[in-house]
Specification:
6 strands; globular
Length: 428
Amino acid sequence: MENNTITLINNSTGEKFNFDLINCTRGPKAIDFGKLFERTGIFSYDPGYASTAGCKSTISYIDGNNGILLYRGIPIQDLVSKYKFTDICQLLISDKLPKNDIESKEFDLELRQLGFLHEGLINIFKAFPDGAHPMANLSSAVGALSTFYKDYVDISDDNGYQMMAKRMIAKITTLVAFSYRNSIGYPYIYPDISRSYVENFLYMLRAFPYGKLGVNIDGEVEIDPLEVEALDKIFSLHAEHGQNASTTTVRNVASTGVHPYAAISAGINALWGPSHGGANEKVLNQLAEIDDVSNVPKFIDRVKDKNDPFRLMGFGHRVYKSYDPRAKAIKNLKDELDKKGIKMNAKFSDIAEKLEEVALKDEYFIERKLYPNVDFYSGIILTALKIPVSLFTPIFVIGRMPGWCSQVIEHIKSGARITRPRQVYEGK
């Protein structure tokens, strides 16, 4: 019979304590230490929570050793190749994919119809100063949404949870577009529900009410279907990724009983950091610093020099100890777009590919399991799609929104108590 307990022995007193083991459907077992302190008078010390599970979830699964990522049990590469981002949104928040093309289009249309903002919220944007980072505008605007949809503090049924999530997913593209245009002093462009979810986002970024900048003579914005397809895949690859820093922040804040949109606003602030969602921007800056393929060996040497603080951005991941499956998909997308006519920055692309080639053969990187991650090529693709660098992290926000919403729903429904970690006190 399988042993479903583990024994902790206090060597000082000889006391033995049995704790239950939780059998996961995938991955390692977990020790239920929920009453560790209550029973033993001690608690665990795990800085960064590298070995601690803070929740039970059915949303996504990561096997970092084998490069596996599943959304609701389905491999990410299968979802990206067969479904649109809005289909994946539906999967994450409701645990079901559309049955056919009609259901897929109906869900996309519903999101488009929910994409308009309350005029009062638009007035809030007008109070933000020119030049503010779009992430600052965005987190504030999402927090303000809680004042317009205050009933979501107390959701009583599944319809309420689904509407809360759909409204947030729908409005986030409008909020990102407005945040960006406000940051550069451009007039706002309202959603066009005749366009698909992803195309509509590009339209709100590029269109102008007057003139021809980015617009044909007939008034139509130039949007290549390949751009829509590429951005759709980028959103999909970022849609969910377990208990990362921003998702954990969302669940921790939600545990206080706060409005769901306030919890998501907190997640946006957590994502802003260069160690998290801002990494792809740092990759692009570093490619510019390397400047030429011939300089790659010099920078590889700097990585290996323990006295040099230089760190190669876009390599390695806290979870993945093999090739990030999202990075593989991103690399394939880059190559595919290049062949179809969406031209990458040739210099950056060549430098990135050379870095990857060297790193995958170099013992230093192999021993430390430093493989390209999802951020390594995404900035190059976004640049080719004419996305401003300041919008790289907000793009991540759009992609991650269905994941955050599903995590909030799961957390509230679980009835989990407020998050309250312990601390190891070393003061006077």
